[in-house]
Amino acid sequence: MYGKGGGGPLRPAPCPAGYPGGPAGAAVKFACAQIGKIYVWGAAGPDHFDCSGLTMAAWAKGGVSLPHSARQQHGVTKRISRAELRAGDLVFYYSDLHHVAMYVGDGWVVHASQSGKPITMKRVDDGDINSYGRV
Description:
alpha+beta; 6-stranded antiparallel beta sheet; two-stranded parallel ribbon; 8 strands
């Protein structure tokens, strides 16, 4: 359920922090609902996801088609600043753009981190940020 925290270590804060409505609202609500599912490389749902598969599937719920690659998602989104972040924006990590997460508000992202690990929330600044993108 969005807006609720208390989900233990995987959901330490309300997810999403606020409901933005529209396509972004559908995307963040979907991403938050996937918390706890297990990362499988190359997967795009419905039971398993990798990082770009999660953001691709989430934005598909908002009616937006994204490629299944963090680097390619970086290429099709508009660069924004940290101060401009709003729920539904994508956060790209590492110089080689091998990881992407979805910003869900209040300084948190939802992401699928690595093989065998559950989808979880983490602080947006917890990692080597490359850039931010708006769908």
